Amino acid sequence: MNRATARRMLSSYVEEPVASWLARVGVSPNAVTLFGLVGAGVSAYLLGIGLLWAGGVALLAAGALDLFDGALARATDRVSKFGALLDSVVDRLSEIAVLLGLLVFYLSSSSTLGVLLVYLALAGSIMVSYLRARAEGLGIECRIGFMTRPERVVALGVGTIIGHFSAIVLLIVLGAIAGLTMLTMVQRIYHTWRTVNVDGTE
Questions:
Q1: Domain boundaries, the chain
Q2: Rounded distance, CA 177 to CA 9, Å?
Q3: How far apart are the first and last CA of the chain?
Q4: 3-196, CATH topology level
Q5: Tens digit of pLDDT for each residue in 47-75?
Q6: pTM to 2 decimals?
Q7: How far is 160 from 90, CA to CA, in rounded Å?
């Protein structure tokens, strides 16, 4: 099953039914987006105090909310440019908050390797998102890559849950996120370069 097929199944069997229920109870798309940010803040706090399994659960719950705001906006005909902007900003803030929680955890544990890997994972995550935004500003769709936001959320959520019981697992996950986000950066730069040259605009 490729990513596009999985995405269609997720939309049909999860996003749309939940979005329909949220619409019936009167929840707005922007409220769902902000609830996700609150969840990320809770996750960051739990991670910072060393409750990695609870922080991972909170992160996965907050990440799940990110599935529903767009679907809800479409279901209620409330798609807006501001909503899209808010969603993007909240995604970045959520990721920063969660990784800050992990940074606090590793600083309190005096783990230089953990601090380094958190920094690299954060830098890679931000650059992947920046490259997509910059490419789309040039009129080029750029969603490709091995380590996009959904993969990062799932990897980090699962990694922190398991990492509560086996510290090395979380370090491996952070290293994988750091490495694969760097690879995704290269993929997106190449994709943008190739698209620009094929179109003949430069």
A1: 3-196
A2: 25
A3: 36
A4: Four Helix Bundle (Hemerythrin (Met), subunit A) (1.20.120)
A5: 999 999 999 999 999 998 888 888 888 88
A6: 0.87
A7: 21
